[in-house]
Amino acid sequence: MTMLLVHLLVDGIVTGCSIGLVAATFAYFYSATGTFHVAHAGIYTFCCYVAWYCIGLDIPFVPALLIAMIVGALLGMMIQGLLYAKLERLKATPLVMLIGSIGVLTVLQNVSAILFSPNIIQFDLPWRTEYLEFGPILLSIPQLLIVILCPLLFLALQVFSSRTALGRQIRAVASNPELAQITHLRPQRMFLYAIAISSALVAVPGTLVGIDQAMQPYTSLIILLTAVVAVIAGGIGSLAGAFLMSIVLSIIQSVSVLFVSGRWSLGVVFAIFILFILLRPEGLVKRKFKREL
Amino acid sequence: MRKLGIGGFVTVGLMGFAVGGAAQAADLTIGALLPLTGPAAPIGIEEQNGVQFAIDQFNENGGLDGTPVEVVFDDSQGKPDQGVLAFNRMADLGDVPVMLTAYSSISLAIAPLGERREILIVNPAAQSDSLADASSYLVNTIPLVGDEAHVLANYASENLGKSAAIIYENAAAGVSGRDSFKKFFEAAGGEVIADEPVEFGQTNYRASLLKVAAAKPDFVYIAITQSQAAMADQIGQVPSFPLGIGNTFSSPFFGYPSTEGWYQTGIQSGYPSDELVTKFKEKFDVDDMGFFAREYYNSTNLILTLAQSLVEDGKELTGKAMREALFETGTFDSDVAKLEFTTNTASRPVEILQYQGDERVVITTGSVAE
Questions:
Q1: Of A167, A241, B145, B173, which shows the fewest CB atoms inside 10 Å?
Q2: Region B145-267+350-366: CATH code
Q3: pTM of this prediction?
């Protein structure tokens, strides 16, 4: 029983790290723009397919991942420039923006299926199923990469947001777009940077999870749902809250199979979400439901 | 413009009717409702290839009384609601008298519609036990999961141990597999000590695998219809994962280090001639004419045989006439399979196969009756 608990904890932490970066990047763009960017899930999957395609062309893993990140950034900028910016100019309500984003997600899923494959894909990488032993725990190389890279990239995002000039400019626009405009910070340009950064970063968990487990064009929505729960329960506007809450929720989801059938594990996550909404609406990290970085 | 008199109108009308009637007798459009997108698409596309190949071969050999047979494909996305919409599209716009189907939940959803509209539905691969009597217009050219589970449960209780765990897909085929295996295994003196569902489309199975392994059963019966490769990889990471067994839809588990020595039942399914297999591989650029391609090829040929016999007898190509012809003929023999219909479900032998290196070795062949 104890060993099983340890295994499930480790599985939860690994899953939590990948979802954590999805949640943090989703929160980053939401905080910057106020757009509920559901299409983030589509970018997550699309980038995985790009990396898979590149590796199929015998491009080594690291360049393939970098290409996927660049494609992710460009795709995000396209979505912002061609859809969100135009909708904003038309004074679209948040609901219209959300529906537009769902539309983009559906298109991306279908484009992934048409351009690459509707199949469940597995990467042709020899190290994909190699394991390292840590006592009784076996971790695959992709799992190790997830545990190392995702928290590192999350920290890098934190540092970028709080310590760099561009990061501060994006925060300034997020806090007060009108004032930022007066000071010659162009909000739409900042939004482009924000979506490029979050889309490039989400390519990393997308690709690594694809290598670890397999990927198909339609699986990412459930990952985004958990990430969004983590964003809200972690405290909207708090990147750290979103990342930590993702790990907590993933551990709960994983360990819950000890007590309930696996079919209820996602239900457990959403039950916790409802409890958070009722008992601590400001989330784990107190931000009072306002868009902040 | 010259006007036709009443006599001329009637004559032209009758000629038109006669021409239309004759054309109608040999005109056949077959519907194929397959999951062409979504998690089940890999299987759906293999099935589509099998159907298309059978139609192409038939038309190359002269078609139906000189008229090429047509096929209309529609996408169920692996979802019952989309399946019903696609069924109605093909019934209303395509006016098809016969339709091939795939996946249990979709076949179950359209079964009553087939009955109501007298469209014969041919199921070459879905295996939920509920399909046995879902509709008098639904025929299954493959034994159902209960038949396979029965043979497998008897074999497992005698040879593999008395305690089992079950991992099943929480959808029609998986639930049916779980229920059937549990019933027959317990009847054979075995005990199911754990069962764990997984979701259709899921790719992370680690928590479920760890839980099942911790129960320490003699073996695990696995009933999932997709993502077997991902599960096989993750099983390799779980220390002391027990031996796995499964039904026909466990076939993709073959060929992984973690599944060496596993067992699965298989419906006896042969290959068409070498020449046809080569042609198939070239046409669709694939390495093999897989199980689903062969089964859909064979079932499409069954439909074409029925249509041919109706045309030869001067009968109309309706779903009702095809259904009657199917049960009148009863037995259909081909290189792929010998199908015998005494009920809506064809009876065929079931093999127990074991994964031994790069081969699936037939350990024994049985049937429910045995």
A1: A167
A2: 3.40.50.2300
A3: 0.77
